[in-house]
Design goal:
about 220 residues, alpha/beta, three-stranded parallel beta sheet, about 45% helix
Length: about 220
Amino acid sequence: MKKFKELDKRKISEVEKDILDSWGSINQITNRQNEVHKDDKNFVFYDGPAFANGFPGLHHMVAKNLKDAVCKYHVMKGHKVVRKVGWDTHGLPIENHVEKKIGISSKKEIEALGIGKFNEECRKSVRENEAAFTDLTSKMGQFIDVAQPYLTYKNEYIETEWWILKKFFEEELFYEGTRVVPYCPHCGTGLATHEVAQEYVNETALTVYVPFKKKEEDVYFLVH
């Protein structure tokens, strides 16, 4: 009868550390793979950027596992897989987070503080939990470049996006439509679904509406 290898009796944390140490750093593995396949066909993968001012969760891990499986598949096919993580630096979640952090609550206060200074605080905020994301990436075994992430506020990223949009426009792949979106009077902009869900609460307010009729015609104004 075949005898299976006995399981390691040490603490799980100790076994995990040995496994991670045996891999070396994530970048060492990816760099070695790319060196082996340097003359082969490229497969380029930029991991969809996460907001690193929040903590990584299960939803990040599920998505990263699926992405990693695709990249490793192409490595096994003999491709040079150029892959790196990125950090999303745009959007209201970051601005709202910074407003709470520095104790302001209006756009006038941002202007008084200085838009340049506020933007700098936002740039710092977007990478607050980068170490936690990198640690998760390492422990789950996702082989990807974490040392040189792309940042969406960098000019080269923004200019590339505009170049892509221009190409789409030239190919007549855009269409103009109309839709109803939630609006934030504080931010002065429309909101995405996940932005509406952040700290959403139902509030009840007593409101009085008074109708006033125009003297000259049968038209009413509702005054709130």
